[in-house]
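Let's practice the habit of predicting before peeking. Look at the sequence and jot down your guess about where helices and strands might fall. Then scroll down.
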Amino acid sequence: MGLLFISIYLIIVKLVIEISSSLLQVTGLDPKIARYQAISMLTGTGFTTDESKLIINHPVRRKISEVLILFGAFSLAVIISSISNILSDDFNISTLLIISGILGFISLVLRVPSINERLTHRVKRKIKHNFSVSELPIRDVLYFSKNDIVINLIVNEEFEYKDKKLKEMIHPHEDIHVLLINRGEFPIRKNLYETTLQLGDRIVLYGDKDLIKQRFTHFLTERAE
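Done guessing? Here is the structure:
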């Protein structure tokens, strides 16, 4: 009976991971990152990675992480108790089967494209209504279409606009906008287009992804989240 209980409970744990991963993806997180972070939070291992900032800096993802962390702590206690033969015959296996069935159904529902898309839209709308702009990651504030991007451009020796004013690089009719220039530890926000670009400058661009990549492919770095 104890082994059956453990087996069913492990199925429940897996279903919780799948559901949490799907919910994290609804908030805009990459599927691979979502699954890894869900496992990390539930097991309490590997969560202190750079990718964890994508969870911590997002209000909805933080709430999902709270549930996962608490469930993980509870699950560890349950599994240790089971292995230690503390389980008795009066554990209700049928109840566990019902719970796992419900979780399995929820996991399947979240994978339906139409439902996933509708839920994603509702989450984004709720985020915009309930949280201030300063609480949200760049993606939720500035990404209005799939082709929007915020990305860094580095001015190196080969960059054709080095030692030229920024206004010579960006054409007025293009869907490319400069948010700021990072020069060492000092961000430049004023008179951007009159600023002369120097070696090592990091220009934060916002606009059409395809156009930005077409013009500056060899000088782009990581995308901002």
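How did you do? DSSP finds eight helices and five strands in the chain.
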